[in-house]
3-oxoacyl-[acyl-carrier protein] reductase (Nonomuraea jabiensis), 248 residues
Amino acid sequence: MFDLSGRTALVTGAGQNAGAGIARALAAQGAAVAVNDLVPERAEAVSKEITSAGGRAVPVVFDVTDLEAVREGVGQARTEFGRHLDILVHNAGIPADFGQGPFRTLAPDRWRAPVEINLFGAMNCVSAVAGDMCEAGWGRIVQISSGAARTGSAAGISLYGAAKSGVEGFIRHLSQEFAPFGVTANSLALGLQSNVAGDSTEEFARRIPTRRLGTPEDVGAAVVYLASPEASWMTGQTLNLNGGSVTS
């Protein structure tokens, strides 16, 4: 079950944290993984970790907000693997300027970055892989989202939440367009993760019913299901992965 042998995957933002966990999990199930990151050293380190464990991976360094760079990176992965990409996991979502703060204090030149990486980044990546998937009659698109897409917060993350809301809507519409071609499209909305910075980690964990933060392994396991043959009837959905902090 959940066997991905012979499949190829691209995971964006896979050089650390949840993205690295996703790449490792897909590789462990047999997929060849193109490990994307904006920082070459991070992509190379995760790729090496996977290959050292007996998996197959290659680093592909590009900025998801640059369509031509995305196309070149996808072409590189296709050449390395000798076939098109079957699985896309768009995980990259945190720009250098996160745009955090009360909206009324944010200058307009800070509004674009979260939208560019989350929404236009997803569009760029889907554009580069969807044609091959539809032609082949099989494909999996998994968008990593956040509870911030549907739950308001006073934490100064309105730009990030708006971007995630937008990309979830994009994925829902894609699911309807691609379903006749055997291609599914789903979002995975994450709760607080173990890479949260600062000394308040334990405080955050106490607010979660499971009394712990999410881990890269938790995220990787959920993505493996969504990317698997067994998930062929799961499309157009947003699944919450948050330790019960928000229920639906």
About this structure: The first strand starts at residue 8 and ends at 11.
